[in-house]
Amino acid sequence: MELHFTGVIIAVSTFFIIGLCHPLVIKMEYYTGTKYWWTFLLIGLACLGCAFFVGDVVWSSLLGVTGASFLWGIGELFAQKKRVQKGWFPMNPKRKDEYEPIDPDETLCPVHHGKSIYALNREQNSPSSKSKEQAES
Q1: How many other C-beta atoms lie within 10 A of the C-beta of residue 69?
Q2: CA atoms of 112 and 25, how far apart (whole Å)
Q3: Which residues pair with 94 in a beta bridge?
Q4: Cβ-Cβ contacts under 8 Å for 25 (sequence gap 6 or more)
Q5: CA-CA distance, 134 to 137, in Å (whole number)?
Q6: Rounded CA gap, 39 and 63, in Å?
Q7: Beta partners for residue 106, in sequence order
Q8: Running along the chain, 137 residues long, what does each successive block of 10 average in pLDDT?
Q9: HEC states along the chain?
């Protein structure tokens, strides 16, 4: 019986690439904020572009995963800023003038602004909203 390790190598490597990008986003936001988000864009696009030209399946896959992780990291970088504003992560005291306080129920989505779906559900299920519904009927 012949064993093929390609899938396992790609899976374990993907796990490590994603695991390395997470603290990279946290450190980058802490030290530089979101002003260098474009570096994630350039690295991500470069990795994805190179993946097209690499013939080996493992290396091409790893370049693709790395590129996709860096592109995903752009959104995470902006979400990380909101996590800091909410007090979930430490704020760099040298850059505290860059942060504005936000509502704890603010969504972390970098595109959508407003309350998170959890806050909206909590409001709908609160006793005060149920009593308003009963009063209206």
Answers
A1: 23
A2: 20
A3: none
A4: 73, 76, 77, 80
A5: 5
A6: 16
A7: 115
A8: 90 96 95 94 97 96 97 94 87 86 72 67 69 60
A9: CCCCCHHHHHHHHHHHHHHHHHHHHHHHHHHHCCCCHHHHHHHHHHHHHHHCCCCCHHHHHHHHHHHHHHHHHHHHHHHHHHHHHHCCCCCCHHHHHHCCCCCCCECCCCCCCCECHHHHHHHHCCHHHHHHHHHHC
Tokens of 37: 């988000």
Task: Give residue 40's pLDDT.
Answer: 97
Look at residues 67, 69, 82 and name the one whose alpha carbon lies nearest to residue 21: 69
Query: Which two structure tokens, joined as six digits, stand for 47?
Result: 């990795």
Residue type, 99: Y
pTM above 0.90, yes or no: no
The token pair at 13 is 């490597």
Domains of the chain, residue spans: 6-97, 103-137
